[in-house]
Amino acid sequence: MCRFIKLMLYGLAFSLCLCIFVFIFAMILQQFRMNAEQPTVSKPPSLTIAPLGRIVGLEKVIMWGEIEEQSSYTLQKQIDHLVSKYGYRGEHRLRGCNLDHAWGYLSNTPCVLLKLNLALNFEADTYSERRSLPDAAPSALRHYMMETAPERRSNKIWASCDFVTKNVETTLSFVPEMYYDADGLFTRENFYVDPDTPENETERVTHEEPGFRRVIGVKFHNLPPNKHVHVTCSVWARNIPLDYATVKFVMYRVDPNAHIETLDVLYDEIDMHDN
C-alpha cells in the first residue's frame, strides 16, 4: 500500500513538472513567434526625395529652366505621381508647395518632397529638447525647436535641410512644418475616436491611412541661375541612424540669359554620362 502511494506521488510530481515545463516552453514560443507583418526587430525608416532628378557623376541633380522645359515637366510629373497616392489629404497638406500649380518650378520657388518610407510598426525615440540633439544637428533646427512651444515638441521626428555653401539670398522653408508627427506614423491604417462626438451619440470613429503624413516639402527661395546649389537633408530621432535618413542633392536652375559658363560644363558632364 505504501509503495502504491509513493508511485502515485511520484506520478503527480512528474505530471506537475511536465505541465510547468510545457507552460514555460509555450510562453517562450509565444514571446519569439514571428509575425509576417510585424518583424521582431523593426528596421528604421529610410529617407527619399521627389523629384528624383538625374545622376551626374556622383551627384543627384535636379535641373530645370527655360532650356530644360521638358525636364521641368518631368520633375512636376514625378511629384504629382507621389502626391496622387494620398488623394486630397496629400494635396491639402502640401498646398503651400504648389501655388503655381507646377510645384514651384515656374516661379523659382521649387519644392523637393522628403518622404519617410514605411518601416512597419517602427516606434521613433524622439527628441523633445534642443539640448539633447546631437552635435551634428544644424543650428536652424535648434532655433526652430527653441521657438516651438514645449507642449508641441513631444513625439516629433524633426527634419532639417542645409546648404553646403551658404548664400545670404538663398533660403528654404518647410511645408507644412519642419517635422513629422510620429503618432501612428508607421502603420498602414489608424482608427481614432472623435473627441467631439456628442454625448447622446455613439462614438464616431475616424479612419486614417497615415502615409500622407510621412511626406513634407522643402521650398527653395531665390536660387541663383546656372549654379550648383548643394543641399543636405536629414531627419532626427535617437533610433534613426543618419546614414538611413540623409539625402544629398543639387538644385540647378537654368537661365540662358545669365552667365552660362558653368551650365556648359554641366551639359558636357550629362552628355558624357548619357552616352
UniProtKB/TrEMBL annotation:
Record-level GO BP terms: intracellular potassium ion homeostasis; intracellular sodium ion homeostasis; potassium ion import across plasma membrane; sodium ion export across plasma membrane
Pfam families: Na_K-ATPase
Membrane topology reported for the UniProt record: Single-pass type II membrane protein
Subcellular locations according to the entry: Membrane
Chain segments annotated as transmembrane: 7-29
Coiled-coil portions: none
Cellular component terms (Gene Ontology): sodium:potassium-exchanging ATPase complex
Molecular functions (GO terms): ATPase activator activity
Main location: membrane
Name recorded for this polypeptide: GL11975
Organism expressing this protein natively: Drosophila persimilis
Upper taxonomic lineage: Eukaryota, Metazoa, Ecdysozoa, Arthropoda, Hexapoda
